[in-house]
């Protein structure tokens, strides 16, 4: 059996689910542990159900067996004498590891942020069916519908700015902040090809964006807050014709869900500081320095 630990925010959970679908396609017995990865995460919860996605859930006993973590006295003594006989595999880097797709027994802990993990055509179709719902299935507030109408009526570009959780003490040494220069160069690049482009800004720091992106062709998107706001935002981003993404799995997926052959996707050249993330980039992306 293979168990994939679910953790992180929406975009990361989508990557983990994509690996789940890929392993299922290969005939593996696969389940998802949607408890353990959130025990010490006060900010996040499992959210794939907001897409209407279902998956086989691992039981506590199955997780314990694969990770050799029984807490009875005999098991604890055995581990001290002979070591832990665990099938846990922690992702060591952001590079694609093809061996993961060949495992028969494993407890997988990581983000698996590479489309090579799910490049099978049938798996891609399944993922699109899961995440490309009709807007009426995902959006109920008036502001989302108004924004969608604007997006569909112009040369729309989603521009993702992620700041607040990247600048806290815990993450600032890991994540690069996409600079104003990065966004300016990306905007200029798109404007050279599409002078009338309208930039729809999706952000967790609206005040900073209003200060740095001014003019009639910049729209800071504001949606009604609720449990489905993240899904509505990603749906709206994916409906834009082009994308300027942050170093974020959230905007990565928004750009991936847009399957238009005409799209432009611009991404930051440096993703994070503590690991090689070259395999997160797709062939459709143009990298620009921060």
Report on the architecture of this protein.
With about 290 residues, this protein is of the alpha/beta class. The protein folds into two domains: about 1-125; about 135-290, Rossmann fold. The protein is built from ten helices and ten strands. The protein has helices at about 10-25, 60-65, 75-80, 120-130, 135-140, 140-150, 180-195, 205-210, 230-240, 250-255, and strands at about 1-5, 30-35, 90, 105-110, 155-160, 200-205, 220, 240-245, 265-270, 285-290. It has a six-stranded parallel β-sheet, sandwiched between helices. Strands 2-1-4-3 form a four-stranded parallel β-sheet, with helices on both faces. The mean pLDDT is about 90.
> What share of the residues lie within helices?
25-40%
The top-level CATH class of the largest domain is Alpha Beta
Summed up, the helix count is 10
As residue ranges, the low-confidence spans are: none
Q: Mind describing the biggest β-sheet?
A: 6 strands, parallel
Count of beta strands: 10
Mean pLDDT: 91
Query: Strand-residue fraction?
Result: 5-15%
Order of helices and strands: EHEHHEEHHHEHEHEHEHEE
Task: Give the oligomeric state of the chains in this entry, treating copies of one chain as homo and distinct chains as hetero.
Answer: single chain
What characteristic shape results from the CA principal axes? elongated
Strand order of the largest sheet: 7-6-5-8-9-10
Number of domains: 2
Instruction: Compute the CA-based radius of gyration.
Output: 20 Å
Distance between the termini: 42 Å
Structural class of the helix and strand makeup? Answer: alpha/beta
- CATH fold name of the largest domain: Rossmann fold
CATH architecture name of the largest domain: 3-Layer(aba) Sandwich
């Amino acid at each position: 059996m293979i168990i994939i630990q679910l953790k992180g925010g929406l975009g990361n959970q989508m990557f983990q689910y994509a690996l789940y679908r890929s392993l299922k396609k290969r005939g593996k017995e696969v389940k998802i542990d949607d408890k353990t990865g959130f025990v010490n995460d006060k900010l996040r919860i499992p959210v794939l159900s907001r897409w209407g996605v279902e998956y086989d859930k691992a039981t506590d006993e199955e997780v314990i067996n694969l990770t050799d973590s029984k807490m009875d006295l005999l098991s604890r003594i055995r581990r001290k004498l002979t070591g832990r006989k665990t099938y846990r595999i922690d992702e060591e880097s952001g590079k694609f590891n093809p061996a993961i797709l060949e495992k028969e027994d494993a407890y997988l802990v990581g983000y698996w942020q590479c489309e090579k993990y799910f490049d099978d055509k049938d798996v891609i179709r399944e993922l699109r069916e899961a995440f490309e719902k009709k807007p009426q299935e995902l959006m109920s507030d008036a502001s989302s519908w108004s924004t969608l109408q604007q997006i569909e009526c112009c040369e729309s570009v989603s521009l993702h700015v992620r700041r607040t959780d990247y600048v806290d003490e815990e993450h600032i040494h890991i994540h690069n902040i996409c600079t104003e220069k990065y966004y300016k160069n990306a905007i200029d690049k798109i404007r050279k090809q599409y002078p009338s482009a309208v930039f729809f800004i999706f952000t967790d720091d609206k005040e900073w964006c209003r200060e740095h992106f001014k003019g009639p062709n910049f729209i800071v998107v504001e949606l009604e807050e609720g449990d489905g706001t993240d899904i509505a935002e990603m749906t709206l981003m994916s409906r834009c014709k082009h994308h300027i993404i942050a170093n974020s799995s959230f905007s990565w997926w928004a750009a991936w869900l847009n399957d238009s052959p005409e799209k432009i996707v611009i991404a930051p050249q440096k993703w994070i500081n503590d690991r090689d993330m070259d395999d997160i980039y797709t062939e459709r992306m143009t990298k620009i320095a921060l």
